[in-house]
Amino acid sequence: MFTYEIQKIDGTSSSINILCGEVTFFVGGNGSGKSSLINQMYRQHGNQDSVYIAAHRKNTFNNDIIDFSNSDYKSAKERVFHDSKSTSSRYRSSWENDTVNVPIVTLKNKSIAHAVESINLLKKGEPVDNLILRTEIDLVNDIFKNSGLELEFFIDKDSNLMAQNFHYSPPRQYALSKMSDGEKSALIICCQVLCASNNTLIVLDEPERHLHKKIVSHLLSNLIELRRDCAFVISTHELTLPSFFKDSTVVSVRNCFYKDNNIIQWDISVINNYDETLNGLDEQVKIDVLGARNNMLFVEGVQSSLDSELYTVLFENVSVISKEKCDLVEIAVKGLRNNSSAHWINAVGIIDNDNKVQSQIENLNSQFIFSLSVHSIESIYYHPKIIRWVLESVQETNLTTPVNECFEEICNLIFNALQDKKEHLCCRAIEKKVRAEIMSSIPTQRDIQNGGTYEKSFDFSSFLQEEITYFEQLLQSRDYELLMSRYPIRETNLLTPIAKKCGFLDRKRYEMNVVRVIKNNALAKEFVLSLLGGAENAFSR
Length: 541
Description:
Layout: E1 2-7, E2 13-18, E3 23-27, H1 34-45, E4 51-53, H2 70-84, H3 96-123, H4 136-146, E5 151-155, E6 161-165, E7 172-175, H5 181-194, E8 201-205, H6 213-226, E9 231-236, E10 249-259, E11 262-271, H7 274-277, H8 283-290, E12 295-300, H9 306-314, E13 319-323, H10 326-337, E14 346-351, H11 358-365, E15 369-371, H12 377-381, H13 384-394, H14 403-420, H15 422-440, H16 445-450, H17 460-476, H18 480-486, H19 495-501, H20 507-520, H21 522-529
Parallel strand pairs: 3-9, 3-10, 4-8, 8-9, 12-13, 12-14, 14-15
Antiparallel strand pairs: 1-2, 5-6, 6-7, 10-11
Helix pairs in contact: 2-3, 3-5, 4-5, 5-6, 9-20, 13-14, 13-20, 15-17, 19-20, 20-21
């Protein structure tokens, strides 16, 4: 075991204990500093028995025959080790050919040595049980098979390590240089891990490089299971990997700080006993946590939707995570907030209003799940105030008429479109209201225990007439702000015509400019924040 101190951006440090038989993952995006972190760890604690597999590694062989003389092999190993301990090893290798050739020759040498040892034991009359009947090559073959790679390796009559491809009938035999990039990468990793000395440190930087994620998870899990005597440190972009390993430690690396071209501090969170710590959370939420900042905002939609783009602008230093439905937003936020072990995560949710009843809104707010004060995200993008701000921002480039005149034309569009969809929009509003009423009045366990009956009735005709009367009043008074806020305007034919009236070819371009306006206009940003139902203050609590 060894202990590594990580210097954090806030001036504190985190200690990580690296133990044989355990796996420590470093996860984070490009440029977060995770590769530099594990490289520094290796240079401090690695020795000649340690294994360092760099992310920039070469995986091609210059020759069909891969071999060294005994003296050249020893020299090559020395060169590879000293090169791995240099400050530039994270991004450059001075001995690329040696780096890929040495593991292959090591595998071949070990397998031949074990075969010779077994023969000598057999000559001495040793029991069969004492013989080494399965060499490292046999282990590589097992791992390839379990990982879905249709290759086996063998030593030919000239003592060359060769590949046999079972995808062909009959199987085809060829030199290692003719394998695919993924197969070469998998083989080199297998050689380095399986041939490592006992009780040593193995550092893998981006093992998924050149490999499909389904293959890399099986490959690593098989290797680690075989080398429980070693300590593994793995840096990866593949956030699903830690879920394959029980009780692993995960270091989420979000950012780093440079001084004199060297990284000296990192923004990290250490999650000890990953499975236990995030117990009860579904796998996707676990993955969301690994790739996120301490402040997480869960919103409706997909990652490319209106919600994600808008909230990324509104909230700095917050990870915006999209969930397809509001139910999934609620599950994610409640799961994280109810998990005391995940206290470093400040999880907040924003969902559409959808005409929720006030009691439901208040209940969700108490759990840091906030409903928009308008119907849905489109009600923000196409709110009359936002439309006017957009018009003012593009008046010199997009408009042929004054802003006021153009805005009046858009208001007329809104009036006519809403009038045409009056009954549909009113029915939708009632539908949402009825659903909310039913959900908020579902009997509790205590109600059921107390007995009795449950009844709930609605006078739809009365509800609808009241809504239509209210709708007509808003139209009469031309209260476009309330109309666009209360009803599902995405179910009208308004959005594209509004975009074109603003001088844009389509909705997408208009909506991109809405985001630009909110980013650059303090008043617009303040206004939009006021529509978030209280979420604007959730990260400062």
